Amino acid sequence: MMLSGINEKLIYRHPHVFSTAKVKDAEEVLHNWQELKQKEKDKKGIRIHCCQRAENLPALSYSQEIQDRVAEVGFDWENDQGVMKNWRKKWPNLSRLKRV
Predict the structure, then answer these.
(1) What's the rounded Cα separation, in Å, for the pair 13 and 73?
(2) Ordered per-residue pLDDT tens for the chain, 100 residues
(3) 75/21 Cα distance (integer angstroms)
(4) What's the CA gap between 90 and 92, in Å, rounded?
(5) Contact status, residue 62 vs residue 53, Cβ threshold 8 Å
(6) Beta strand ranges found along the chain (DSSP E)
(7) Where would I find the H helices in 14-79?
(8) Which residue, 74, 75, 79, 99, is most buried by CB atoms nearer than 10 A?
C-alpha cells in the first residue's frame, strides 16, 4: 500500500517523465513540480507559506531556500539598483518622506 502511494506521487509529480508533458529545462521541471505539490496540499486544505521553515535547516541553508522561493515569483535582482527601481515603482510617494 505504501509503495503504491509513492508510485502514484512520483507519476503525478513528474509528468515530463511518465506522460506527454514537455518542459524546456530543469527550472521549468522544478516550477511544475512545486505547483503540482501545492495542488495536492490545497486538496488537503494545507497552504505552504513561502517562508515556512523546515526546522532542521541551518540558518544559511534556510535563507538560500527563501531566496530561491521568492525568486520564482520575481523578487530577485542582480544588484541594489534593481531593488531601488522596484521600490520607487511600487511606492513612489515614499521617496518624498523626510527622515526623522
Answers:
(1) 20
(2) 677 788 888 888 888 888 888 888 888 888 888 888 878 777 766 555 555 656 678 888 888 888 887 777 677 778 888 878 877 787 777 767 666 5
(3) 27
(4) 6
(5) yes
(6) none
(7) 15-18, 26-43, 59-72
(8) 75
What's this model's pTM, rounded to 2 decimal places?
0.42
Q: Are 81 and 100 spatial neighbours (Cβ–Cβ below 8 Å)?
A: no
User: Taking Cα atoms as reference points, which of 93, 46, 50, 47 lies closest to residue 75?
Assistant: 50
Amino acid at 24: K
Q: What is the torsion angle, in degrees rounded to the nearest 10, for the CA atoms of residue 23, residue 63, residue 36 and residue 15? A: 30
